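Colleagues,

For the teaching module next term, I've prepared a clean inverse folding example: a structure given as tokens, and then the sequence designed for it. I'd like students to try predicting residues themselves before seeing the answer, so please don't circulate the second half yet.
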């Protein structure tokens, strides 16, 4: 015969594994966004990887192909910073204990 004992544990305000996973995913997305923002600011549009929207240089679009994609860089930078802040909140925020 086996007996099962139940222990009543007090609720803890620790981090759940789900919140840690969300924080890690947000940090990875933030790092990728920050790398993309650096590429947008440092490379001309014709030298960008195709996944970031490279403009093919054909002669008549020399102005666009040689310019930097500043608007996309700013938007990607903002998304990266927001994801990084959200990851910090998800990881470091602690729920208050309730007395119900």
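(Answer key — instructors only)
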């Amino acid at each position: 015969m086996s007996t099962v004992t139940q222990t009543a544990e007090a609720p803890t305000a620790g981090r759940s594994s789900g919140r840690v996973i969300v924080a890690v995913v947000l940090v990875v997305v933030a790092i990728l966004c920050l790398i993309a923002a650096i590429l947008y600011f440092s490379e001309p549009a014709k030298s960008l990887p195709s996944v970031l929207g490279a403009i093919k240089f054909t002669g008549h679009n020399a102005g666009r192909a040689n310019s930097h994609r500043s608007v996309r860089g700013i938007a990607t930078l903002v998304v990266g910073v927001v994801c990084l802040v959200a990851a910090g909140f998800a990881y470091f925020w602690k729920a208050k204990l309730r007395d119900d």
